[in-house]
Amino acid sequence: MPVVPVCRPFLIAIAIAGIAIASPVAHAAPDACALLTAAELSAAVGQPLGPPARSELADGSGGGQCMYGYGGTNQFGIELWQFASAAEAQKKFSSELSDSDKNAIGSQKPTTESGVGEGAFSKAGGLASMKAIEWMAVRGPRVVHILVIANNVPSHDRLRGLMLAALGR
Question: Distance (Å, rounded) from C-alpha 154 to C-alpha 115?
Fold first, then answer.
């Protein structure tokens, strides 16, 4: 009996396994809810938060998002991108900074922040009767975005502290 017909299924299985190992592996979006605790966020806004809603960002960037509701229509959001390199993260951050005027909520204007990661900016403004404040920062291969839309938003210093904590984890 020839060896090839007997070994053929085994050789096909090895080839398929090799292709699967060599193929790029799809990674799940990073867990933005793991960056800051509910206790930290509740302390920042001064009231308890609802349960987190985890999702992958809809823009196809592979980022993860965590949204909390509190006090009726108030929202606290965290977005996280984890890149393969710091250069890729810097590219994302630079793109967001250059587009920050176009992506403003209400009357927001970007302000460059020093001493936070390798680059950071914040935006604060009004949206109808609510306030909107955002922070975005880059550190190494990670970009973090914090967004609060509420009647009363945490202070600039408190959000700075939350961003520093998030970047340190």
Answer: 19
Indicate whether 8 belongs to any domain: no
C-alpha distances (whole Å) from 31 to each of 35, 80, 107, 127, 138 are 8, 7, 30, 28, 16
Total domains in the chain come to 1
Q: Which value, to the nearest 10 degrees, does the dihedral of the CA atoms of residues 86, 87, 88, 92 take?
A: 100
Domain that holds residue 42: 28-167
- In the chain, the amino acid numbered 66 is C
pLDDT in tens, 90-138: 999 999 998 877 767 767 889 999 999 999 999 998 878 899 999 999 9
**Contact partners, residue 51, CB within 8 Å, separation at least 6:** 68
CATH of the domain at 93: 3.40.1000.70
Question: Does 4 fall in a domain?
Answer: no
